[in-house]
Amino acid sequence: RAKREGGDLYRFFEPAMDQRLMERRAMERDLRAAIERNELYLVYQPQFDTMTGELVGQEALLRWCHPERGIVPPADFVPLAEESGFILPLGLWALERACTEAASWPVPCRVAVNLSPAQFRQPDLIAVITAILERSGLPPQRLKMEVTEGLLISDTERALTLLHALKEKGIFLSLDDFGTGYSSLSYLRRFPFDELKIDQSFVGGLGRDLGSAAIIEAVLALSRSLGLSVVAEGVETEEQMRMLRDWKCPRVQGFLLGRPVRSDELFSTATWVRTPAELQLQALHPRQ
Ligand code: C2E
Ligand code: MG
Ligand code: MG
Ligand code: MG
């Protein structure tokens, strides 16, 4: 088509496409080597109970420190890993690392691990997760798995079976990025989730547009009647925090309350428990 539209155009952008493809291949190759080269690590972001201020969880987020590119955000390499199939070993690496690190924390909060829909196609997923939990010594009750709506739509029956199996093990199930996918509200009733995470785009809209506020209030009312917990993610301002607390949103996560940091920085420093955000949270909810 390009050729018909202008003879030179074709020759003009072909090398650019080549370039991009080669970049991708290089990234893929580097990513496959990244685990052994020790370039991957996890950072953890706290999740708090809005009413008590208690730390209820830490979400594990993948980071890749590339020797030339520096820190590559997961949005740039997780999709690549999903397309190449490398997400299976990568996802298991993250799970094992998260469980092992969480097992050594002084506070027995949950560790939340993101699971790619592609990982649900792994035939022995439940057995592998069981083995990882046993090796790490982390009780299944302390593991939370975050999955996105895409999983529920692509292979509904398999997703149902696997999620029930995880739930039976005692693993806590969270539906991530809620509101951004195409799943219907009936999914919430059919699937054994314990919690849903309101996507940060809605939280970001608080105080800016009425639509976001309306959606958050509706989701909170719905989850209350379904007996689900809720995490609002991406809380950045005190105003957002105040609104969420007024609406009795049970849990919050975001830069206001804590940025993701490495496991060894989580509890070792006294600074963590005394971040300004933590003090703010306490001030908002003085304990009686
Ligand atoms: P997610 O699971 O929805 O994670 C939340 C993202 O929001 C994280 O980005 C986090 O750093 C960011 N975030 C948290 N609080 C705030 C805030 O107050 N403001 C803003 N603007 N952002 C905030 P991150 O670490 O870049 O991860 C992006 C996505 O990459 C994750 O979205 C998740 O889908 C994926 N991901 C990360 N780690 C893993 C992993 O181990 N496995 C899989 N399959 N996916 C992962
Ligand atoms: Mg998540
Ligand atoms: Mg999310
Ligand atoms: Mg997200």
From TrEMBL:
Its recorded name reads EAL domain-containing protein
Q: Where is the EAL domain?
A: 24-274
User: Which domain of life does the UniProt lineage start with?
Assistant: Bacteria
